[in-house]
Specification:
Elements (H helix, E strand, L loop, with lengths): L1 H20 L4 H5 L1 E5 L5 E5 L11 H8 L13 H9 L7 H22 L4 E11 H7 L4 E8 L4 E8 H11 L18 H22 L7 E7 L13 E11 L2 E10 H4 L3 H4 L12 H13 L5 E3 L7 H5 L17 E5 L2 E11 L2 E6 L10 H13 L1
């Protein structure tokens, strides 16, 4: 026991000498405390009052974050930057979606009031982009997932109704008292009656969604199936991006939320229209300017040629022509003369005389374009919808 105390005193003296050689201050020396454990091993602890904090320099901070203030390059990112970027979904801005779902909120407020005969308030919670797999993993269970198909777009979407709204709607439709919170029965699947009532509510939501999309592109949403397990609601690849719209439905002291998920593949047929800033935008076309241009074109003066005869001759024959040679025109005296503007043949006529001038009488109507502007717009719109 005496030998152990001597060893401890010698070890403490060695540590004190080492601190003095490194230039440590008396305060720092006092910060170290040596204790002996039950196993006879000496432990060195730093006193809380004397311990000095180590401050990271700028290089260490940059390595931790994965980027520096001077260089904010997003390529080859690491650290916290890599963790943040892995959860982000890059998507393009679709301004018309905000207008469509604002219109859906107004329509849905009236439709759900008629459907439930209760005071219903619908509000738009948020619109954001998510990855499809992340959304399926974030759905709180129990819930009912309605997979619907957009007939004209030939793709699918998901309408998710959470349990709070399910029990609230069932309670309202089956005559529950107002001001009483719906009782949840956990641990059992939804009955056929409950699934049928929720399906009717989803049909009302999809019908209003059709009206909301109608100014952009007519579409018919048809319910394909109802699922309670998100595993069976896979309508897109896990890493594909999708638009998630969350609607809040409040019925006095009851309510819940409805989420509508539309993958980008579903919205691809009308992507150009959704990128418009306002309804009816024609990407730079101005009807006033079109009418003005048409008026100016009709008033413009152009050069017209009357071609009697036209033929191709070998270059050698042209080089051998001399004064007095005769060129025979392979045409009859009553042959029609072509009236041409540039390289375009406008019409044909007969050559004659009016007074002391040579004239051409038009025998056929002017040749017009086969495709009108209205036909061109109809074909273009039909190609976009297809």
């Amino acid at each position: 026991m005496a030998q152990t105390d001597i060893d401890q005193d010698a070890l403490a003296a060695e540590w004190g000498m080492a601190l003095e050689e490194q230039g440590a201050t008396p305060d720092a020396a006092e910060a170290w405390d040596t204790t002996v454990g039950e196993d006879g091993v000496t432990h060195a602890n730093a006193a809380a009052k004397g311990g000095a904090e180590r401050i990271l320099n700028q290089e260490e901070i940059d390595n931790l974050l994965g980027f520096s203030v001077e260089d904010l390059a997003l390529t080859d990112s690491g650290g916290i930057r890599a963790i943040i970027d892995s959860a982000m979904v890059a998507y393009e801005r679709l301004p018309m979606l905000d207008i469509v779902f604002d219109r859906l909120v107004r329509l849905l407020t009236t439709s759900l009031r008629n459907f439930t005969s209760d005071n219903v308030e619908v509000s738009l919670d948020r619109i954001h982009a998510v990855r499809f797999a992340d959304y399926l993993n974030s759905i709180p269970l129990p819930a009912i997932l309605s997979i619907f198909k957009a007939e004209e777009w030939d793709n699918f979407g998901i309408a998710t109704v959470d349990s709070s709204l399910i029990y609230s709607i069932i309670d309202v439709l089956l005559g529950g008292r107002r001001g009483v919170t719906a009782i949840r029965v956990e641990g059992r699947p939804y009955t056929t009656i409950e699934m049928g009532l929720v399906k009717r509510m989803v049909e009302v939501i999809l019908a209003d969604a059709e009206l909301a999309f109608r100014p952009i592109a007519p579409v018919n949403f048809r319910i394909d199936r109802l699922e309670t397990n998100p595993r069976f609601a896979a309508i897109s690849r896990p890493n594909n991006a999708a638009i998630l719209v969350r609607l809040r439905v409040d019925m006095e002291e009851r309510g819940g939320s409805v989420e509508i998920l539309l993958p980008y593949a579903t919205l691809e047929p009308i992507r150009d229209r959704l990128m418009q800033t306002f309804v009816g935008e024609k990407l730079g076309r101005d009807p006033v300017w079109e009418r003005h241009l048409s008026t100016e074109i009709f008033q413009a003066r152009t050069h017209v040629e009357a071609v009697l005869y036209e033929d191709e001759l070998p270059l050698r024959r042209l080089m051998d022509l001399k004064v007095g040679d005769t060129l025979v025109l392979d045409m009859k005296p009553d042959a029609l003369v072509k009236v041409r503007c540039g390289d375009q043949i406008l019409t044909e006529g007969r050559m004659g005389r009016v007074g002391d001038r040579v004239a051409v009488r038009v025998q056929r109507p002017l040749r017009r374009g086969r495709t009108t502007l209205a036909q061109f717009e109809q074909v273009s719109s039909g190609g976009q919808e297809a």
